[in-house]
Amino acid sequence: MRTVRLLVAAGCSALLAGGLAAPPAEAGRRSAPEIPRLTDERGRLLTLRGWNVEDKANRGGKALSAITEKHFADLRANGFNFARLLVFWDDLEPKRGRYSAGYLRKIERVLDWAHKYRVRVVIDAHQDVFGPAFGHRGIPEWATRTDGLPFTPNPDDWFSEYFEPAVQRAFTHLYEDPDLRQAQARMWRVLAGRFDDHPAVIGYDLINEPMGELREGEDLPTAARRIEREQITPMYNRLAEAVRSVDRDDWLFVEPTPIVGEGVPTGLGKVKDRASKVVYAPHFYNTAMEAGADYDPAAGWIESYEAAVTAYPKEHKVPVVVGEWGPLNNSLPNMGRFYRDALASLGRYSSGWAGYVWCYGGGYCAVDEAGRFRTNKEQTAAPYAEAVAGRVLSESYDARERTYRLSYVAGRGGATEVSVPSRDGRWKVRVTGRARESGGRVYAWPGARVGVTVTPG
Question: What does pTM read for this prediction?
């Protein structure tokens, strides 16, 4: 979300004061076995680790031109196997009913690069403050209806623009107007129909950070849960049906409102997918840290977030992949601790994550102009098993010793695949049990108990 969230903080401070904190589990070990894991077509348990890839600056003929093959080569060299690719409805369908063949070709070129470097991609239908009618990207101007309500830009705190009357009313029309519902579903049929067979695509994020219209007298947590329950859940069900009409196999990623970042459990209902392949994809941002504050371990924010964000996947038995996370001011004194705590938390309940954002420079960029990790972000690059052919017994990573350990009972899904950040030096992979390792792949006898240890060297 990448912004100062003063309004969110005001709306949620009372709830946070009530305390949603839960004691953290042992770092690096899963504490939520009732949350299922993401799987591939062979039934292997997947872990996705990577970054968002975007071009918000260019559009039309120059759309996606800021994304290059280097992005994916560098992702894989640093051990990452996942990218969340931002695409924009306003570029895909600039005029109602006229879809851009050129834009689809540009998306395909990016996906081809991803496949070349063995990076899995979720295609994210991104919006910020609804779309270009309000100076941002996302939903086309022709699909923006405001009933003449006012909008005042606030470039110093662009997230506050979500609370402008015109923006809120635009969301209501998107959710409620039959013709806009149909247009959004057609857009997804075009996207999914074009890329359903592309080998890089693992799924579709149906809309980025959905918001809505607050009613008079509602506080923000109450409004968020109502909007999620009454408007966003039906939207996801419509879009799921649209995607499934052209793609039977890829995963559907569904997001709550961004208010979940304040430790507020979602009001989303069950998403009815005939393929039963739904992923809960919340974002992981903190109001105070987005406003420039350092991480405060004593505040219990990560514990509150974890308690809130795991409620939905436990109830509906769906895997979790966190679609965005990472602070702006990552070099403050406590940020090293933040990355350690955050990565341990994500490892307890999620099947993976995408940091924000893989670019070369300052701000939120993962790396500088020379491709070196910016302060503390190097902690995101570590060994892990990106695919496990079997049942995981235990999994841990010791950041101080830089040692990854995996224990599993081998199944029949093929090889277990281990990823290491090759740009970070040499690594040794050792296996125990009835198994052998070759090039990061572990081949085991079905039913064997296998141990994998990855160390520097």
Answer: 0.94
